[in-house]
Amino acid sequence: MNITEIVRQRYSTKSFDPSKKIAAEDFAHIEAALRNSPSSVNMQPWHFIIADNEAGKARIAKATEKLPYNAPKIAHASHVVVFAARVCADDDYVAAVLAQEDKDGRFATEEAKQAGDSTRRLFLGIHRNQIQDEEQWLAKQVYLNMGFTLFAAAAAGIDAVPMEGVDLQVLNEEFGLTEKGYKAVAVVSFGYRAADDFNAALPKSRFENEAIFTKI
After folding, report:
1. Where in the sequence is the domain holding 51, given as residue range(s)?
2. Which of 46, 106, 123, 133 sits most deeply, having the most CB atoms within 10 A of its CB?
3. Cα 11 from chain centroid?
4. Where is the Nitroreductase domain (predicted)?
5. Is the whole model's pTM more than 0.90, yes or no?
6. SS3 category, 187
7. Are 74 and 61 spatial neighbours (Cβ–Cβ below 8 Å)?
């Protein structure tokens, strides 16, 4: 795997070929990235709604009524994922994270388990009570997941485009996210670029190293 080539060639796909579908075994790599992304103190404050058929994509596309230029990016993609973030990490949720870690064998002793729980609650308390940005902090973890998954897609030869240009409230209502304690933060479409996708031919534009790196 040539990581430099992958990151240089990856781009936001503006036009998908609707005739090209991602094979189930290939999309499994995307699902693995969604599930295994890093998050602060392993909070995993995310939920994903995945559409791989016309009916499902049409439900997500309801969120483009006021932003119709993004509708084809959903309709023509192979798979579309709604990224949702928890609004708050309540006691039940934090306990569920700990229980899953315990089930997965992350703790050698009861003391280690309690230390892990205390550390998580410490950081949660900082964001809830001191910085008072719990909701934003949890959403940041989902964006971390999104970046991780976009790279995984590129490494697997799958094209993608992340979109905030959708009506998030429509998605919240369509999928009952609010009642479940989540909110939609973005949509990502996955598939394979169309032959006439203009963005594929454009050179990548980034600041020079000297402008973005400070080495000490």
Report:
1. 3-89+139-194
2. 46
3. 16
4. 7-192
5. yes
6. strand
7. yes
Q: Beta strand pairing status for 46-51 and 159-163?
A: unpaired
The percent helix, strand, coil of the chain (3-state, each to 5) is: 55, 15, 30
Question: Which positions are annotated as active-site residues?
Answer: 14, 73, 164
Question: What CA–CA distance (Å, rounded) separates 214 from 124?
Answer: 31
First to last CA, the chain: 29
Residue 116's CB is within 10 A of a number of other CB atoms, namely 18
- Both tokens assigned to 113: 């388990």
Beta strands per DSSP E along 18-158? 46-51, 79-86
Q: What is the CATH number of the domain that holds 178?
A: 3.40.109.10
Between CA 64 and CA 171 the distance in angstroms is 10
Q: Tell me how many degrees the CA angle 59-63-66 measures, rounded to the nearest 5.
A: 140
Domain count, the chain: 1
User: What is 97-112 written as a DSSP string?
Assistant: HHHHHHHTT--SSHHH
Phi, psi for residue 81 in degrees, rounded to 5? -125, 125
Q: In sequence order, what are the beta bridge partners of 161? A: 189
**Residue 16 per-residue DSSP state:** B
